[in-house]
Amino acid sequence: MPLPDLMMVRSVLPWLDIAGIGVFAISGALAAARRELTIVTFVFFAAVTGTGGGTLRDLLIGAPVFWIHDNRALAICLLAALAVWVTPRRIWSDQAILWFDGIGLAAYAVFGSWKALAYGVPPLGAAMMGVITACMGGVIRDVLAGEPSILLRPELYVTVAALTAGLFVLLMLLGAPLLPAAGLAALAGFALRALAIVRGIHLPGYRG
Amino acid sequence: MPLPDLMMVRSVLPWLDIAGIGVFAISGALAAARRELTIVTFVFFAAVTGTGGGTLRDLLIGAPVFWIHDNRALAICLLAALAVWVTPRRIWSDQAILWFDGIGLAAYAVFGSWKALAYGVPPLGAAMMGVITACMGGVIRDVLAGEPSILLRPELYVTVAALTAGLFVLLMLLGAPLLPAAGLAALAGFALRALAIVRGIHLPGYRG
Amino acid sequence: MPLPDLMMVRSVLPWLDIAGIGVFAISGALAAARRELTIVTFVFFAAVTGTGGGTLRDLLIGAPVFWIHDNRALAICLLAALAVWVTPRRIWSDQAILWFDGIGLAAYAVFGSWKALAYGVPPLGAAMMGVITACMGGVIRDVLAGEPSILLRPELYVTVAALTAGLFVLLMLLGAPLLPAAGLAALAGFALRALAIVRGIHLPGYRG
């Protein structure tokens, strides 16, 4: 298996990381908007939601937490909060949080698995890392906002993260080149989540 | 004080760790079952609940997070989720979460203190580590499931973790051999929690 | 910029750290009191609330978690819990949690930024560290107690943390001596939070 080297993760595909940070940050700011909070609270929600999943990932795999020594992540969160703040609410439909969360979910499921592989985490753990970190941004946002966790929504969510991360790790195991594998897995994941949001598709629930 | 060496923790008494992971994982899957979630969400709840307390412990004491480089923990969580999924609900009484949580509480209170001692944490901190990590699995599960935290139930819970961890650390300080000390503390802790569940015994609450 | 050296942080101004631990611990014990919990649960809430913000800070900046190898922090939490337990409730007005939380907010916003600077975190990250760790003690307490997060209260809260941490980091950047800078920022922050509690002053909320 060709382990993605960390330099490449940082230089070739930073957009997945930025996408994850930015869209989760927007979803956090939208949660603050729904509760009519202030601009400072917008920034706080954007920063915690945008960086939460990646922070947990870095703590778990023993990497330096990515935003501590690099101001760009916080700058993205600041811009995301301002963007939501200065625009009228009607631009952001009720489902906007879901859509931005969905992009973040797909992006982080791939990027989280990838960084874990780059740190030498074995495949199963790396896939799980993609899942946990992709889902935790939204969970942290919902806990802070006092809303029911997105995990409890009926349509596919954790499943999307699991399939996305699993597909990416599998492609890497099979020797696929990094860039197409990452793009394919992220797009497939987002498409599945989009179907879940639009059509409400879901796995059967436990009926006992 | 004879510090338990890490090799012994890993080889002689892995059952405490496995018991903690497995029963917390089952309690997490049961929380998912109560909300009629899907098989993937079962696995996610099982994994986060089963590994949550130990993950926090490892982060706090600066140990590598135990399940990142060892697939066995995740495999146990997967099996626990499948076990709950394939069995009819009537097998799992309403109190089943409480009982599995209780076993996990006792097992993790001992194992958490033990691993902390093995990493050179002083006695008071080690006991606190047992308490926090034993309680946090259930707290994480309840927060994810949107249920009132188990900490707020009237009967003995944190107290059981504190007495279990305290008894184990005290026995180690007194020079007791590892295996009997661990077994005695875990059994005493589980017995006390069982009494608390069955008889509802509790300390007096604050009345101001 | 004269970086505060870690020795000085530890020796000259330990009172900010102790204040943060102690008053957050009291606010945690008061949350337990409001729910008429037991003495052991008081101690648990006091310990988790008192050490939560600083624990997150240390994990994020890669410092050893401060209370693991030093029993004083846990001892302060124990004393705080006992102090609340043995006193009648009428001493603690309904707003007491807010006031103790406010002192903790100001103290931790300064101390958190300071420790981050001492660990080489750049200014923006250090200020953010002050904000997140100052706010997270209260957030953890509210999540554990099942109450709406203090972040969602209408009057200034995150804003106070941001201004306090920002003022302190700015003063350090301008070359101000450590002790006056810390004292000034903490007092200004507490004064602002006091105004927010008493007068309910707040920034305008998002109206879309």
TrEMBL record, chains A, B, C:
One of its GO terms (cellular component) is plasma membrane. InterPro entries: Gly_transporter. Residues 15-87, 98-171 form the Glycine transporter domain. Keywords: Cell membrane, Membrane, Transmembrane, Transmembrane helix. It holds the Pfam family Gly_transporter. It is a multi-pass membrane protein. Its main location: membrane. It is found in: Cell membrane. The chain crosses the membrane at residues 12-32, 39-60, 66-86, 98-118, 124-144, 156-175, 181-201. Belongs to the UPF0126 family. PANTHER family: INNER MEMBRANE PROTEIN, UPF0126 INNER MEMBRANE PROTEIN YADS-RELATED. This is Glycine transporter domain-containing protein.
